[in-house]
Amino acid sequence: MLSWALIFLGVAVLAAIFGFAGVAGTAASIAQILFFVFLVLFVVSLIFGRRSPSV
């Protein structure tokens, strides 16, 4: 998921360089949403991954 966020960030940067404001804004928004989803999933996996196994 982080790779998708980085891909959309790259698309946003390239679109901004070439002057496509609408595409750049949309790609940046998608990258931001995917990044925050990745962060939430990362924190959840840290919390639930640290539990000791039940014997």
Question: If you had to describe this structure to a student in words, what would you say it looks like?
Answer:
The protein has helices at about 1-20, 20-50. With about 55 residues, it is mainly α. The chain has one domain. Helix 1 packs antiparallel against helix 2 (about 20-50). The longest helix has 29 residues, at about 20-50. The protein starts with a helix and ends in a 6-residue tail after the last helix.
List the helices and strands and how they pair.
Layout: H1 2-18, H2 21-49
Helix pairs in contact: 1-2
Strand fraction: under 5%
Largest sheet: none
Shape: rod-shaped
Regions with pLDDT < 50 over 5+ consecutive residues?
A: none
Order of helices and strands: HH
Distinct helical segment count: 2
Q: Report how far the terminal alpha carbons are from each other.
A: 33 Å
Alpha carbon gyration radius = 16 Å
Estimate nothing, just give the exact number of structural domains: 1
Helix-and-strand structural type = mainly alpha
**Which whole number gives the mean pLDDT?**
82
How many beta-strand elements?
0
Helix content: over 70%
